[in-house]
Design a protein that fits this description.
The chain has 83 residues and is of the alpha/beta class. The chain has helices at residues 20-28, 50-53, 74-78; strands at 9-13, 35-37, 56-59.
Amino acid sequence: MAKRYYPKYLYIENSVREEDLAKTVLKNLPSLAPQYFDREEELNLSGLSVKDGKEVLVIARKKGRFLKSCPGSARARDGPRTR
């Protein structure tokens, strides 16, 4: 059986704190005190190792495109095709 994921730290962007996902996470992790933030720039997560990063859960609104072209693909290098 797979081990359940339990983060040590929870960060929730204020703009999504009333979204279903945030409410569900809070309900399922009642002992975890969330820290709320307004902008991702407020979080200082750049110094985390991969192992440490797995202990942090950040819930935030995705800005920009959800999927991006692979940087090594011709489309990314040459731009979108025109007909």
